[in-house]
Specification:
Blueprint: H1 2-20, E1 44-45, E2 57-61, E3 66-69, E4 78-82, E5 87-94, E6 99-104, E7 124-125, E8 131-136, E9 140-141
Antiparallel strand pairs: 1-7, 2-5, 2-9, 3-4, 5-6, 6-8
């Protein structure tokens, strides 16, 4: 009788351990497109100075939408996808405006909760509560 119970318990234990060894999904729970990101670079806010909003403008994603990446120049893994017409706050530009660091609210949440319309005393990494990432230049209509 003891041996009859041991086999199923061993199988359950083995499956539990196998589940623990799986990598965690990306933070935004978007599917990994072509592997893990090579680099991650947080979006910086307050780059325009302490008297202006933390992010310079609200812009609208152009028709067709855009992918959001983990870092400028990083295209191996998609962090999130934004639909055409979605609003984003442009916070930082990189590589001669080839990439924009953006902050955006999750669908169905209030974009004002992102807190980037207010000034910050010094340049710093965006820490939430909204989502952030990098989009290619030319995928948004500036000033939305």
């Amino acid at each position: 009788m003891k041996q009859g119970i041991a086999s199923p318990l061993a199988a359950i234990l083995a499956l539990s351990l196998a589940a623990c060894s799986q990598p965690a999904p990306p933070t935004e729970n978007a599917p990994v497109v072509a592997g893990e990101p090579i680099a991650t670079r947080a979006v910086m806010i307050g780059t325009e100075g302490a008297t202006l909003p933390a992010c310079s403008s609200i812009s609208r994603v152009k028709a067709g939408g855009t992918d959001v990446y983990w870092a400028p120049g990083e295209t191996r893994a998609v962090k999130a996808k934004l639909a055409g017409g979605a609003n984003v706050s442009l916070c930082e530009a990189a590589e001669n405006d080839a990439w924009f660091g953006v902050v955006f609210a999750a669908p169905g949440t209030d974009p004002d909760m992102c807190g980037v319309g207010k000034s910050v005393t010094s340049v710093r990494e965006y820490q939430g509560p909204c989502r952030w990432g990098w989009i290619r230049g030319g995928t948004v209509q500036l000033g939305g």
